[in-house]
Automatic annotation (TrEMBL):
Gene Ontology CC: one annotated term: protein phosphatase 4 complex
Polar residues bias (residue ranges): 150-164
Protein name: Uncharacterized protein
One Gene Ontology molecular-function label: protein phosphatase regulator activity
Species of the source: Planoprotostelium fungivorum
Family designation: Belongs to the PPP4R2 family.
Transmembrane stretches, start-end: none
Compositionally biased intervals (Low complexity): 177-187
Region (Disordered): 150-201
Basic and acidic residues composition bias: residue spans: 188-201
Highest taxon listed in the record's lineage: Eukaryota
Length: 201
């Protein structure tokens, strides 16, 4: 089953069905498909929840397993991982840090050290505040509002940039030429096993 989503951040009944099937106890061959990854992208992009927490928790745990499998096995890392799984399991509702959790699970290379990554994930799970699940229509309305505000802010920023770039017609001074943009080599994907430095700012 392939879910067709016009706006990838909006609630999708197809995605909901895929998530329900994925999290079922009878599903012993769980695979994180691109469609299911889209649910993680929704969480990371909005910080809002519209799917059943029990189902989301299974998805998060599965993704954690996949990420952790790429880390070197040490007593300390195994202890941290065990604590992370335990913290996740104890939540009966979604933690208010769900957005950051999803970001970390989607992009483990944000941290160049497995230990620092595990500490970061542990930290966002050591919270007590939770958030409610939104009804699909309420979720979609809030997402649309977020997107409208972002679009307006971006438009305002573009207008301000255009105003600044226009030379004053009454001024005798010539517009200052922009300095050439600095170039940098594009970095390749960092392998989790090679993590060594501080997290990117």
């Amino acid at each position: 089953m392939t879910a067709q989503v016009a706006n990838p951040l909006l609630y999708s009944a197809d995605l909901d069905k895929l998530l329900t099937d994925f999290s079922s106890e009878t599903n012993t061959n769980k695979t994180l498909t691109p469609e299911l990854s889209l649910i993680l992208e929704q969480l990371a992009g909005t910080g809002l929840l519209c799917y059943q927490w029990a189902h989301i928790k299974v998805l998060l745990a599965h993704r954690m397993n996949s990420v952790f499998a790429g880390f070197p096995s040490t007593p300390e890392s195994e202890s941290l991982q065990k604590g992370i799984f335990q913290s996740l399991e104890e939540f009966t509702s979604a933690p208010f840090t769900i957005q950051r959790i999803a970001e970390l699970l989607l992009r483990p290379n944000l941290y160049k050290s497995p230990q620092k990554y595990l500490f970061a994930l542990q930290k966002v799970l050591l919270v007590s505040s939770v958030q409610n699940i939104l009804a699909p229509e309420d979720y979609n309305a809030q997402v649309a509002d977020q997107q409208n505000k972002f679009a307006q802010a971006s438009k305002g920023s573009d207008v301000q940039s255009m105003d600044v770039s226009q030379p004053d017609e009454k001024s005798d001074s010539k517009p200052v030429e922009a300095a050439p943009a600095a170039t940098s080599e594009s970095s390749s994907d960092v392998k989790v096993e090679d993590m060594e430095t501080e997290p990117a700012k």
